[in-house]
TrEMBL record:
Protein name according to UniProt: ascorbate ferrireductase (transmembrane)
Topological category with respect to the lipid bilayer: Multi-pass membrane protein
InterPro entries tied to this protein: CYB561D1/2 (IPR045150), Cyt_b561/ferric_Rdtase_TM (IPR006593)
Main location: membrane
Keyword Ribonucleoprotein set for record: no
Organism: Phlebotomus kandelakii
Enzyme Commission identifier(s): 7.2.1.3
Domain of life: Eukaryota
GO cellular component: membrane
Compartment(s) of residence: Membrane
Domain Cytochrome b561, chain residue ranges per copy: 38-243
UniProt enzyme class: translocase
Pfam families, per database record: Cytochrom_B561
Entry-linked CDD domains: Cyt_b561_CYB561D2_like
Top-level taxonomy: Eukaryota, Metazoa, Ecdysozoa, Arthropoda, Hexapoda
Amino acid sequence: QSDRDRYKTESSHVTDISHKRTKMDINREEQENQPSWVKIVINIVIHSLLFLFTAYVIYLSFSKGVILFSWHPALSTLGYVMFMTEAILTFSENNLLSRNRNFKWRVKLHWILQAVGGACIALGTTTILAHKIINGKTHFKTNHAIVGLVTIILTVFVAAGGIWTKYSNDLRQYLRPVRAKLIHAISGIILYILAVISLFLGMYSNFFERYSFSSAKWVGGFILILSGIYILVNPMTTCVARFKTALMRGNL
């Protein structure tokens, strides 16, 4: 009887130690996953810079009145800089707006932001095409227009890829889910780079140089490049990690 009691006592003691270690491990992981104050400040700064850039472009667009052309830079900047950027950042652990949410919630928010951003981009593209047609101007002559056209085409492709990725398990007979996700991620990264280039070239347009202050394009370029690097670091590292994992498991 005493041996049995001793065994129960020792087992209970071992179980308590195991539970304590598990709790300690969980607490340690939670502390490690908590963003440092530096990451929090950087995240706030990036959001603030992008908001200021978008607000300034919208202000310029309507500063001389509301015409059909005004909606092109305003809506395009709003779609790419605000909504598409935030959609990408939803999967970042350092993003204050979504870091405490589960993956399913982030995917849903990603879809909503991309849909709203896509609507803004579509309207912005429609207005510039209508403006050109009404005024009898030629299309796609400048570098900004050419890169913008490629960006719009790729935007449609990435959007279609996002829909495919969402239902990739049901479509696995045509394309493996891991391949679909990698294609969507890589094309999304390329799209964002093209969007930044297009916006940068837009700051050298007659419209921007005529109505903005002299160094605005340099300030805007700095904001776009700095924020672009910050925003794409996480998707690129995640994409490389997924590729390596899929390659090791032979899922490609």
